[in-house]
Write a structure and sequence with these properties.
Layout (H helix, E strand, L loop, with lengths): L2 E3 L6 E9 L1 H7 L1 H9 L10 E7 L5 H14 L5 E4 L4 E6 L3 H11 L2 E3 L4 E3 L4 E3 L16 H14 L5 E2 L5 E6 L11 H13 L5 E4 L7 E5 L12 E2 L6 E7 L10 H10 L14 E4 L3 E7 L3 H13 L5
Antiparallel strand pairs: 1-8, 2-3, 2-7, 3-5, 4-5, 6-7, 9-14, 10-12, 10-13, 11-12, 14-16, 15-16
Length: 315
């Protein structure tokens, strides 16, 4: 067994009392989904999904992605991962909730009644072997092995990372109050979002939750639609570059993608081709996986993701 100490010392994972389901999607978006599916412009996941909210400090975003997804990937659990301005969200099939809990507990997480959340104490523990995996058999037992299998899976399906050098992203959030503590005009945020959609943006991600303000990842050219009302919170100068992977050739239930990519970038020297870890964010959709890195790290990130190809390691 591999021995490893936990690094998510202050992380808390909450299961949110909400589900994404097909009937709700049909009720709210009946006309849109019907026309989209007829023209093959949409994929609707046929299973109910549950959401886990991750809160924690003291760990870089990229390593947090790796630490959170590795136990689930080793257990063969399919996930969607969403990084927002405030929190990370992991979306899993509702039928896998029990397996998710076991995977977290095997990783060292324990449920604390006082916090009503799974927390990860700073204690050493054994990583158990997973019982199932859709990437291959026998199932991988380490993150390094899982990473190699993930990259090989992408190569077999002809999936390569691509970058549109013209897109620069900003991570922002809706501002609920101004510098004087006065509530901001929520309508101004809604108007700005409407203008963005009319602009037909090349990249726009919006995450809405009950307890947090709206979180956005958007093309820098869209920020002007929210001015001069100052309704966006966040640094308007720190750009992120999206590295896109077209995952349409893979089944929706494929596992290990997020963990494999995070291990390659955020794992640093352990990833095999980097002298130091690259900070990254990740966004899952039904069709695409998007890795986001700072502009200064783009060349190193692309080199790392393509190293296995050049070395002939992906067959």
């Amino acid at each position: 067994m591999e021995q490893q100490s936990s690094t998510l010392m202050s992380a808390q994972i909450h299961f949110i009392d909400a589900r994404f389901n097909l009937s709700l999607a049909e009720e709210l978006f009946h006309t849109t989904t019907n026309s989209a599916t007829d023209s093959h412009d949409a994929i609707i996941f046929s299973e109910d999904l549950v959401v886990m909210s991750v809160e924690g400090e003291g760990l870089e975003a990229g390593k947090r992605v790796l630490e959170l997804t590795s136990p689930l990937a080793l257990a063969g659990i399919s996930i969607f991962f969403i990084t927002t301005y405030f929190s990370d969200y992991i979306i899993v099939p509702a039928k896998s909730k029990g397996q998710v809990i076991r995977a977290l507990e095997d990783r060292g997480f324990r449920f604390e009644e006082s916090a009503e959340a799974y927390v990860n104490p700073a204690a050493r523990h054994e990583r158990n072997k997973s019982s199932t995996s859709s990437i291959g058999t026998p199932p991988p037992t380490t993150v390094d092995e899982l990473q190699s299998r993930t990259l090989a899976l992408l190569e077999r399906h002809g999936i390569s990372p691509t970058v549109d050098a013209d897109i620069r992203l900003l991570q922002c959030a809706g501002r609920r109050s101004d510098s004087d503590g006065r509530p901001t005009d929520e309508m101004a945020l809604q108007v700005g979002l409407t203008k963005c959609l009319l602009y037909q943006p090349r990249f726009l991600s919006l995450t809405l939750t009950e307890n947090e303000a709206a979180s956005l990842l958007l093309d820098r050219r869209l920020v002007s639609h929210f001015e001069p009302n100052n309704v966006l919170l966040g640094n308007k100068e720190d750009f992120l570059i999206p590295i896109m992977l077209d995952l349409k050739p893979l089944p929706l239930e494929a596992t290990g993608i997020v963990c494999g990519l995070a291990g390659k970038l955020a794992g640093g020297p352990a990833g095999g081709s980097l002298s130091s870890a690259i900070e990254m964010l990740y966004l899952s959709t039904a069709r695409t996986g998007t890795v986001m890195v700072e502009e200064k790290d783009l060349d190193h990130a692309m080199k790392a993701l393509r190293t296995e190809e050049r070395d002939g390691g992906l067959t």
